[in-house]
Each structure stands twice: as structure tokens, then as C-alpha cells.
Specification:
Strand order of the largest sheet: 2-3-1-5-4
Radius of gyration: 42 Å
Number of strands: 9
Number of helices: 7
Helix content: 25-40%
Strand content: 25-35%
Low-confidence stretches: 1-14, 74-79
Largest sheet: 5 strands, antiparallel
Distance between the termini: 84 Å
Structural class: alpha+beta
Mean pLDDT: 82
């Protein structure tokens, strides 16, 4: 026989087949605990406690394993690092992207915002026999490219020529390329960032030699004209010693590449 526990009483009485009320009757509780059903329930409680005690330990083990895995991956990537071949490929691509050139027009060329037929680069090319200049007015020249000039310009890799709306022709002539001499050092900042130190040197073509600031070809020009040739028309010290530079690289989905976020 079992009696439901009234709300007004703190104790409920059970027979041998039912659990005791967890109230104030200690004797009834121990009587139930001695039965088979009580022993079974006690064992279930112990099992639940064991399982619940393993939970935090498993979480700790999983966390430690994750940390060890991250450290291991980090160490592996640092050891793997950035190879000489990878650094060379990125640096050479960057150097090739920086190609100086001189631009000019042929035909009846009048001064405008982007074109100055009286500027010194026309005189440099005329002096070399590549252009013929005829003065028309204070802001206009008739510019003719000689046959030798056409052949030389067309022989240079990267040369471009196009016709303009005013019936003049535009010429864009590369002057030099940058050649990688060697990779001096690679410094890893982390598995996905590195600094690369390298040396490079100019390799001018025939037109680039005309625009070499250190050559005798430009010594007859005024300081003002030489500076304008440097600032606007690609002149440089093309026969100088190799230059040292440092570049920052980052590793992304497509491998190592130039860090453009700096």
C-alpha cells in the first residue's frame, strides 16, 4: 500500500515495493534502501555520477589536444617556411611589373596636359637619329619617326603604338628591365608572413642607354631638363651598381604573394 503525499504533510508512508518519501522519516528511507529495488536505484545513481564526472575531464583533454595541435601546426609551418624558389618567383614577378618607359607622339603634336612636344625626351630621340623635329610654333612640332627609329622601337619587347583621335600616333617604348641578382635573406614573422631581402640590377635596352643619367648622352642638358627626364620620361642611372631592397610577403589561398596591405 502506498499513500500519496498530501501537500500539508512533510512525510509520505510507503510499503516495501515503493520508494520512501525524501522527507523526514530516516528509518523508512533505510528500509527501502535495503530492498532489491533500492539497491538497483542506488547503483543507477552511482553510474550517473561516474558518467557526469567524466564529462569535464573529456573537455579538458579535448582542449589540450586542440592546443597541442595548433602549436604543432604552427611549428611545422615555421619549419616549412618560405623557400628560396618561392621567394624568387614572387620577387621576380614584382620586378617585371616595374618597367620604365618613354612615351611620345608623331605627327602634328601640339602641347596639351599630357603631351609636351618641346620637352627634352623628343630632343634625346632626335639626337639619336630616331626622330625628326620641325618647329611650327611655340607649342607645336611636326614629329616624324625615321625608318631606323620604327625598326628599333618595334624590336623592343613590350613596345606599343596606337593612333589618336587627332591623327597623331602614340608610342610607348620600354627602357629597361629589372633583373634579380640574388636573395640575401628570408625572415619569417609567422607561418603566413615573411620579409625577403634581395638585390637587383637594371638591364637597359638601346633606348634605355640613351636615357641613362650617368652617361655622356645627357650631360649636355640642363639640370632642369635632366630632372624632367627622370621625373616624367623614365631616365635613370641604368648602369649603376646593384640595389638592395626588402619586400614583405604574405601567404594566402594562392600561396606566397606581395603584401599589398602595407
Amino acid at each position: 500500500m502506498a499513500l500519496d503525499r498530501p501537500r500539508s504533510h512533510p512525510l509520505v508512508i510507503y510499503d516495501n515495493d515503493s520508494p520512501p518519501a525524501y522527507g523526514y522519516d530516516v528509518a523508512a528511507f533505510f528500509h527501502f534502501a535495503a530492498t532489491d529495488r533500492g539497491v538497483a536505484m542506488f547503483e543507477q545513481e552511482l553510474e550517473l555520477e561516474k558518467r557526469s564526472s567524466w564529462g569535464p575531464l573529456i573537455l579538458v583533454i579535448a582542449l589540450v589536444g586542440s592546443i597541442v595541435g595548433i602549436i604543432g601546426y604552427y611549428a611545422f609551418q615555421l619549419k616549412k617556411g618560405l623557400s628560396q624558389a618561392e621567394a624568387t618567383a614572387v620577387v621576380e614577378a614584382q620586378l617585371k611589373a616595374k618597367t620604365p618607359s618613354v612615351t611620345f607622339r608623331s605627327g602634328k603634336v601640339q602641347a596639351s596636359g599630357g603631351e609636351q612636344p618641346k620637352d627634352p625626351h623628343y630632343k634625346v630621340l632626335e639626337k639619336a637619329g630616331l626622330l625628326k623635329l620641325t618647329n611650327v610654333s611655340w607649342d607645336t612640332n611636326i614629329v616624324v619617326v625615321t625608318d631606323g627609329g620604327e625598326k628599333m622601337f618595334a624590336s623592343i619587347p613590350g613596345f606599343k603604338k596606337w593612333k589618336n583621335a587627332d591623327n597623331t600616333w602614340s608610342y610607348e617604348v620600354p627602357l629597361a628591365t629589372r633583373k634579380l641578382i640574388k636573395i640575401d635573406g628570408i625572415t619569417l614573422q609567422n607561418p603566413a608572413a615573411a620579409h625577403v631581402e634581395y638585390e637587383w640590377q637594371w638591364v637597359p635596352n638601346q633606348i634605355g642607354d640613351l636615357f641613362d643619367v650617368s652617361s655622356g648622352n645627357l650631360k649636355s642638358y640642363t639640370t632642369w631638363d635632366r630632372q624632367k627626364l627622370i621625373d616624367r620620361y623614365g631616365a635613370d642611372f641604368y648602369h649603376s651598381d646593384p640595389k638592395k631592397e626588402t619586400v614583405s610577403l604574405v601567404k594566402g589561398d594562392k600561396g606566397w604573394q606581395l603584401n599589398t596591405g602595407l
